[in-house]
Amino acid sequence: MDGILRRSGELLTQAGACAWGCADGAWLLPRMSEDARGRALERTPGLRRLLCAAFPYARGDEAAGRFSRYARGEDYHRAIMRRLAPVAEALEALCPEAVFTPWADSSPFPEVYAAARCGVGKLGKNGLLLTRTAGSYVFLGFLATNAPLPATGGEITSCRGCGLCERSCPGGALHGGAVDPEKCLSALTQKRGALTPEQENLLRRGGMLWGCDRCQLCCPENQGLTAAPLPEFHRPEPLLTDEDLALGDRAFRRKFDGRAFVWRGVQPLRRNAALLREDDGEDTSADHTPHGA
Length: 293
Ligand code: SF4
Ligand code: SF4
Prior knowledge:
Layout lengths: L1 H13 L4 E6 H4 L5 H10 L5 E8 L19 H19 L5 E5 L6 H7 L4 E2 L5 E2 L7 E8 L18 H5 L5 E2 L2 E2 L5 H6 L6 H10 L7 H4 L24 H4 L3 H7 L11 H14 L13
Antiparallel strand pairs: 1-2, 2-6, 3-6, 4-5, 7-8
Helix pairs in contact: 1-4, 8-12
The structure holds iron/sulfur cluster (SF4) (2 copies).
One iron/sulfur cluster (SF4) binds next to α6.
């Protein structure tokens, strides 16, 4: 199985991964809820190992703006699946008795912990995985397999724990690596429906239409990164006009099909733009220019 593991690494690297590794299912499965374990085993009967790959989307030095860097490019679920599926097929062809199931983002695995256990990076107090060459600016993809590949990781390592991310968080959402979604600006910009007055204030103060990068931008482990972002994620900030935000949900989704900020539909973006416009006291619309956050 050493040869298959080596080939897995070559294929994942060719697919654009800046780091990869393999964790033992015997470590992973007991740490999952019964429901999550059931989902994983249904897709990969006899699951024994989990391969993880990190795909870089930014280096953090892109211009500031009102869209988080992760949301400026293509929908990462699609893009990562497009990169992982051929790897899974190639490994199944090499290893016909095995199954390799690709997952991107919506997996049943505790993704950040599993990636750290694979040795792909460190656990950050900002709740993210910190890779060596792309820091936390990565999307994680997984291949679950029943092949008994050698595990590559070991004990999970953590970041230096400087606490800058906690102190930089505008909503006070970070505590020891856990993120409170009711206080996290990134989660709130994506939330459908009404926000509380406190949450609306946070959104106005944060000045973002979608997402928040502060706990990444301040992190010392995100400096001096060398991995090049993958081209489908390295795009200028989206420009949304008033007309775009007035579209019905279906028309909005159709127009921006394949973009990362579309998955909750038009309503959260329309609300966020209205809140920012109120705060600016003028019509900034969503046809925004980068601000100096
Ligand atoms: S994304 Fe922003 S609001 Fe959310 S935890 Fe990080 S710094 Fe805080
Ligand atoms: S800012 Fe400091 S504490 Fe937060 S993730 Fe980075 S190294 Fe860890």
